[in-house]
Design a protein that fits this description.
Number of domains: 1
Radius of gyration: 17 Å
Number of strands: 9
Strand content: 15-25%
Helix content: 40-55%
Number of helices: 8
Largest sheet: 7 strands, mixed
CATH topology: Glycerol-3-phosphate (1)-acyltransferase
CATH architecture: 3-Layer(aba) Sandwich
CATH class: Alpha Beta
Order of helices and strands: HEEHEHEHEHHEEHEEH
Strand order of the largest sheet: 1-9-6-2-5-3-4
């Protein structure tokens, strides 16, 4: 079995395991660029499930921006690259958008993923404004996607070791409990809820700090609203 088949098998089994579905796929354009912004869970692969669903239903590939640490692990790097992940950078994302592609980003990155479970369903992108600047610079519409149940896949325990490793090396060293207290993911039922596209200011630039702050605040507020609303559904 080659690596492409392995990646497909992993995602298909994960989708069945989590009974995954997407609400709001009609908001994804059938052509042209769009920036899909998601909340970041510790499991991470929930973003891949969304990209898989978009490919299956709409026939569009999604460029997933991955945390740099993914590309430091040989096997994980190969799987991620095969499945459409690219190393997260403004350059890579802008190139894809200007080529008319769909790009998916979790702006909170590893910091948000490592939140303890006492902070689940809480967005942590307050100072992550690069995605807003990217949309403003390219004119790409932003489609917000909330999947609160992704925070239920693992119980994340707060501890100083996790904080120290992240702050010093920007690597993940979480203390987690999954199914039956093991590292096996819990079978949380995952639903991605998509918001209607939100257009950036029509000026084609990101050099106005006040405009960036205002657009970022709109996106952050709406995504948090979606997480809170659907976490209680």
């Amino acid at each position: 079995m080659n690596i492409i088949n392995i990646a497909d098998t992993v995602m298909n089994r994960a989708a069945r395991y989590h009974d995954h579905r997407v609400e709001g796929l009609e908001h994804i354009p059938t052509s042209g660029p769009a920036l899909i912004v998601v909340n970041h869970s510790l499991a991470t692969y929930d973003s891949g499930l969304l990209a898989t669903a978009i490919k299956a239903k709409l026939g569009r590939d999604v460029g997933l921006l991955g945390d740099r640490y993914i590309f430091k692990v040989p096997v994980l790097r190969d799987l991620a690259t095969t499945y459409g992940f690219v190393e997260g950078s403004q350059h890579n994302a802008e190139s894809l958008l200007r080529d008319g592609e769909l790009v998916l980003v979790a702006p909170g990155g590893m910091r948000e993923a490592l939140r303890p479970s006492s902070q689940k369903y809480q967005l942590d992108i307050r100072d992550r404004k690069g995605f807003a600047k990217l949309a403003m610079r390219t004119g790409a519409p932003v489609i917000l996607s909330a999947c609160p149940a992704a925070d239920d896949i693992y119980h994340v325990v707060p501890n100083p070791v996790t904080d120290w490793v992240y702050n010093r090396y920007r690597l993940a060293a979480p203390v987690i409990f999954g199914k039956y207290g093991t590292p096996i993911p819990k079978p949380a039922k995952l639903v991605h809820y998509l918001n209607a596209p939100m257009s950036p200011p029509d000026n084609g630039t990101d050099d106005d700090p006040e405009a960036v702050d205002a657009f970022h605040a709109r996106l952050e507020s709406r995504l948090q609203e979606m997480l809170t609303e659907h976490a209680s559904a």
